[in-house]
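note to self — DONT lose this again. spent like an hour looking for the file last time. sequence + predicted structure for the chain T wanted, 420 res
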Amino acid sequence: MRSRRLAVAVVLAASVALTGCGRDSGGGQDEAKSVGAGKASGDITVWAMGTEGEKLAEFAKEFSTENPDAKVSVTAVPWDAAHQKIASAIAAKQTPDVSMIGTTWQGEFAKSGAFDPTPPDLIKKDDFFPGAWDTTIVDNTSYGVPWYVETRLIYYRKDMAAKAGFPDGPKTWDDLKAMAKGMKEKAGAKWGLNLQPGKTGSWQSVLPFAWSNGADVASATKLSFDTPEMTEALGYYQSFFKEGLSPTALPDGSLEPGFVKGEIGAFISGPWHMGIVEEQGGAGFKDKYAVAQMPMKKSSTSFIGGSNLAVFKDAKNRDGAWKFVQWLSKPEVQVKWYQAVKDLPAVQSAWNDSTLSGDTFLAAFGQQLKSAKAPPAITTWEQIAAAFDLEVEKLCKQNAEPAATAKAIQEKVSVIGTGS
């Protein structure tokens, strides 16, 4: 799994209070200003993390060719230093013009007053997947642009699913449970479905089931984790562990070989796992597995992640920065970026390109992105997520009652609040 997938864990350790640069205490919307016409010019400073930070400078040369009076300077920032570096730059008013921002950081930094509102004359909301666009919204105002996205699907062994009675994969909650049982009882799997049994990031695995059951767990002003819909989803998730269909402790590095060997019949993950299992499975393994949408209850909803691009209020070249962000948001540029880095496009029309639409697996991820969701961009989400993860671990490993788990989560997050 690539380094940016560890960003959530990094934030939990590195979260820093931003002082002296807060927004108006009245909580009013910032006014989005227009961007000047014509080509970009001047120096445009950019920070980016992980593989994106390593690849963007070379990729941006095409932008400079189209805008000969502009120069893009990219600083590659390690993920484990990024949050602190951005926070310090904001406090010192020494920010770059634009930076890559993890979606779970958006609320914290936007609330500090650091970001320039997204200019609607330049960036169009409807161009992006709704769930991705929502990660840029703080206090009803957009403070960034989705750059790339990812979502989660069910990976399953086709041969084992067929023996279990689901040759086309699961479609509903009942299907997923029955397929997992059949893979264990009829197809010889040790585990029918691998699920995360708590620990950092498990909220990303559990919340899709809650969302699919109609739970609205959080908004900018309200936290509702103890609803009947959430309790039912927690009970459903727990049942895979109680019935011996999912492991409570899977050794590090054993998921992919277990899937290849048929010891694990299915698991839930993002697009990066395609390359991993195909490499480990060797020639022909791509024909042995498939991916399916998240199972339907009231809806089929998955988690949407990725990273945004934000322009800072203290940017020295605001117009150039927004024009660079707009260029990175062009459908044809998003496709080229996918080809260079394998980041999935956040712009919906980019998925019409045969590079993505012509691949059955990628097309399935594109379909799921249409209904994928993310938690609201609130300043306290990392603390809320940490509290949630701890209770999920008790649910999966200690058989805590689902209703008690929902109540415990609600009690903890109510103390934390939304930061509004």
